[in-house]
Amino acid sequence: MSKRINSYQAVASFVRGFFEAYARGIMDAAVGGDDFQKKNDPKEVKQMMLEHYGEVNQYFFDIMFSTLVRLNYKSAEEANERMQKNFESMKKTDPTFEPTMLDYLRIACKSNQLYKAMEAEYKRNFTWLLQGKFTSIEEHVRDYTHGVLISLADEPMAIHLLVRIIVKAYAAGLKCVSKEGTQQQLHMPTLHGMLLNNVNILLNEAPLKGDPEDPVALFKEACKNEEENINVLFNTLNDAMKELAEE
Questions:
Q1: I want to staple 103 with a disulfide (CB 3.0 to 4.6 A). Which of 50, 99, 132, 187 is the partner?
Q2: How far is the CA of 57 from the CAs of 89, 94, 115, 176, in angstroms?
Q3: Residue 184's pLDDT is what?
């Protein structure tokens, strides 16, 4: 049986994955081509994030809410029941109460401590991007909000959720910059690089040691050499790409 994931570790990697994918989608659409230097230039990244500052909240909610529910609840029904009870209770205290995105995310996190950790990760990752910087694995592991809370999700499920976050957030970033009526193509080297790094962060929290020229070996290392983890990563990627193509 696969090992269950620590919720703090998962949430930190999910939030990091979202922000990196969203920002790289924006940069790929704005810069185009393979100009690696320009796409990673702090001034360029900072400028593009400032230009699309107002769109982040909605995309984050749309992508992360169902992800957090799946991480923390046995079923969507259980989460819905909790929401209804919570919101009904709030309405009794304040008849004008209407739930906000933050109220929904708080329920999705299930525990208030995990919600606070998610909030801290959101601020930390976004602040780095507004300074034009993508965090390294060492910086992420050092700075994220640590804690111990074993989730209901095992490692393959956590990989599945992370891959979907990255594909959706990357597509959202591309969409932000695309002109109306034009479809931006996903840049697969960008996507594969993000999946490799972020799955490795999720499962290993340590730099990859393999040969950079051997991507197959690197993906195996990131997935702890577990065949199920590797299969979940690429099957989820294929499914998410098909969904995007059908939208």
A1: 99
A2: 26, 25, 15, 13
A3: 66
